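Hi team,

As requested, here is the filled-out complex form for the protoporphyrin IX containing FE run. I kept the field names the same as last time so the parser does not choke. Let me know if anything looks off before we queue the next batch.

— J.
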Amino acid sequence: MKVEGATTHEGRAGLDMTDPRFWRAGAISTTLVMLVVLAFLSVDSMRVISVGGAHVPRYDVVNRHIGYQYDWSRREDVPVIGAPEPLFGRTLTEAQATALVREGKLVIQSRACMDCHTFFGNGAYYGPDLTKSWLDPAWPQIWMPMTGKPTREEAMVAFLMNPDQYPTWTRAMPNLHLTEREARATVAYLKWMSAVDTNGFPANFGKTQTQQ
Amino acid sequence: MYRSQKLSLRYFTAAIVLFGVMILFGLLSALYYLYPSMLFNVFNFSTSKILHIDTLVIWLLMAFMGAVYWYLPKELGHEVVGMRLAEITFWVFCAVVAVVALVFVFVQYGSANEFTLWFINQGRKYVEAPRWATIGVVAVMLVFAYNVIGTAVKARRMTGIMWVLVLDLIPLLIVYLDAFPAPTNMSVDLYWWWWLVHMWVESTWEVLIGCVMALVLMDVMGTSRRIVEAWLYIEVMLVLGAGILGLGHHYFWIGTPRYWLGIGGFFSALEPLPLLGMVIHSIYDAGMHRMKTANRPAFYWITAEAFGNFIGAGVWGFMMTLPQINLFSHGTQWTVSHGHFAFYGAYVCGVLAVFYVAKQKTAGTEFLDGRAWKWSFGLFNFGMIGMVMGLLIAGMAQAFYGRAIGGSTLMAFTQASENPWFIAGMYARMGFGVIFALGYVVLVYDLLTAPRRVPAPQTPMEPA
Amino acid sequence: MTPAALIETAVLLGLLVLAGGGYAGLYGYGRLRARPALVAAATACWIAALAIALAIAVVTPLDAGWKVLVVVSAIVYAVIPPATWRYLERLHVAEGEGP
Ligand code: HEM
Ligand code: HEM
Ligand SMILES: [Fe+2]
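And here is what came back:
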């Protein structure tokens, strides 16, 4: 291995760019700086996305009406948490709501919904995105008549328990054998999730744009 | 041949087998888009896709480990420490993978409880394997880390490349620990899940393949160590400098604060830079050392790695990484297009180069060339480019009709999926996928048959 | 962002990086083989990249910050392939592997 020969040819010992050590120092310091910045940003992000933080509501938000409206000052769609609107007609305490939503998450993981669907746009692309599924006009327009259920949440339970019986098109959802209890928990999860502030994703939900 | 190199060959074999399994399930997954009632309720798309992407992660990890076991003794001039343990671990690794695959195929999913997470399926993309298996993989990786570090200590020697490798293994392992938790809050879940996925593919794996490529460059092209090391440090600096905060391009829409739109967009816009550097470097080295190259397939695959990484990750990534675009392209087949191109360009090409290095050594030829590898090289590249073009068109149709026009509802999703452009894209992916699979068949044939050249004279070669 | 602008913008961004790659690739190859024609083609690629960047700034609805980033990086990028090349040469000369 050459030692300092190359340095003299450069004329500037100590800052020889052909010396690997120069770049080693650069690599280490750049990485450390980035990691420190990331650590600070992560602490701050956790504050915002923890339950009850600025962007993520508490689980008992399932007791309220949830909308999704264009906000002119932010220039994007934002969730709007409105008047009381208990899920399945029953107002839950925070503890009850937390337990229910927790179970919903376990359903979602145990059936690997994410390997067909996306949540906040992450997952697989075989089925529709579920971020705002709670607000999907398909429930009142298609599935409430099809299942004969009087409310959105009951239609969702009926669909989730037997999706293969209520297809809307050729690419149907298979039956993953959710119990009624599991299906209700999943509905609570989807309702809570629709209240998360996602910086405007998805855009124009439910509003068809004209071309150009 | 060192003992650890025999183990590498075993890892390479397992990796190639799993590569085949992965392609098989990729083709099956693609078929559901064309025949959605296929195997309905019996063996669903989700199960097939899990097998496709989980085998992807495992076979690439196995190939990386094999590559390190191959070069480690050579780098440090010392047989790898703890080989017996490493050999047992290999079989443990294979057994874990086989059991998980069987459970996925026959059990598929469970009820909503912790038992399912421990023993059946965790339902988190790329790391669906149940927790017991995740513990198994962590144990395997720990033995691997022990082999590497133990050898360095025993040999009382460390090279720059080995330092980078060892330091890189630490975060690589730490972020893998994120395969365990199951937080209720989806925003928190995805926040840390992306540390695992992004920090693997755009940081730690990128550095790991940089180390492996550095070793291959010295081996195949005879580039000097000082050059390779200086270049490796530059790459690490740029890759981590842009890639660590580039993580922000996954934090646009998961509930995270708004500043991530600026940070993620800015740093991921810088991410193509190191990839460009690799292109220039590979042209330089290819030109300077072409005459000395004794292993044509490895040489071509390294070059393909530089270009593929740049186009698949750099161009395809940049196209959709600014938040205003990503708002619509996010979570469509556009993402799939980029995912395939980037994984293929950055990792598959590099790993194939290493396979050919190993083949040359085991066959004992001084000069490796032939016809079959050219066919597989051509079929692989042609198949992949066709696939990602089809997926790009399908994804743009989804972003255009389903998102920007349709407003992202079920109805919009359905209509976009019935759009002729989308359907054409799905057929293209299927057709080119078959071509890609043919490339695999030729690859296996080529790796298994002895090279036609006369074996090298039995001069006492340095152990290689 | 309108649906059509979305696709246009994405395609322009992709082409921008691709033109950047063309500049780097052709420049490297041209220098390697000492072919001025290729180096000239490389410069043409850079001009194309700059033109694409300006087009992005003029016709797309990207926010001003991104437009500035795109144009400034296209301009700065002019020096990167030659600088990288010179550096690689110096590195190889220092190692006695020079051209
Ligand atoms: C070796 C390098 C890379 C690999 C292997 C890779 C792979 C992937 C994969 C597999 C995904 C999909 C993840 C999922 O949702 O499951 C993804 C997403 C993404 N990648 Fe990369 N990538 C690489 C480099 C880059 C670069 C350099 C950029 C930016 C310039 C980039 C930008 C993105 C973006 C914006 C997404 C999110 C897509 C979405 O919104 O759905 N990637 N990448
Ligand atoms: C015969 C060739 C292949 C076919 C037909 C195929 C097909 C598929 C399909 C259908 C999906 C599911 C996407 C969705 O959710 O809609 C997928 C996902 C994926 N495949 Fe492949 N694949 C092939 C080869 C490969 C190769 C060679 C790689 C890696 C180098 C790869 C990496 C991935 C990744 C990372 C994903 C997840 C990406 C995402 O969802 O964004 N595939 N593939
Ligand atoms: Fe990423």
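Two things worth flagging: Chain B touches chain A through 88 residues (CB under 8 Å). Residues 1-157 of chain B form one domain.

Thanks,
J.
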